[in-house]
Amino acid sequence: MKNRKIVFYFIPLIIVFLIGSWMWYVSVLYNEPYVIANAIVEEAKSGKENSEYILTREEWNEWKEHSKFKNIYKELNWKEFNEFVKFDPDKITIGQSSKLINKVKYYDRDYEIVLIKIRVFDNQNNALIHIKTAHLYMEKIHDSWKVIGGNVKM
22, 67, 137, 149: least buried by Cβ within 10 Å? Predict the structure, then answer.
């Protein structure tokens, strides 16, 4: 009788642990491109000449046949991206959906468009004047996320 009580409490604990572990794993996989985007922003803030996360033209030429972005490809201009980041580095936001349903639905995707925004406010009344944006086209290539292109709108 005592063993039944132990099993009765132990099985739900195992189920809760497994579900929690799976949700943590899903969250980590879903956030990978955003972690890379944040690293790229930090590299631009520090003034690096280029980023290890951005595909070179030669790498793109090898990969483009497999790419989801082959029809809309635009090489990311690193100098322009640096200027974008240095415009107001404290107000940069990297957008992502944090809804659980999106993390579950899209955790195993192999491409992502990451939106990076800088909101420009009026100094007198703090009204939003303009939003500067950059898009990073990212793909998972050989199990690591790379920026294959993007654009900046100042």
Answer: 22
| Domain limits for position 71 | 2-153
Residues of the chain with pLDDT below 50 are: none
Domain total of the chain: 1
- According to DSSP, residue 136 is labeled E
First to last CA, the chain: 71
The CA-atom distances, in angstroms, between 149 and each of 3, 64, 98, 130 are 60, 11, 24, 24
Q: How far apart are CA 47 and CA 67, in angstroms?
A: 29
- Whole-structure pTM over 0.85, yes or no? no
Tell me the three state secondary structure of residue 127. coil
pLDDT score for 4: 73
Please write the tens of the pLDDT for every residue from 42-62: 999 998 988 999 998 899 999
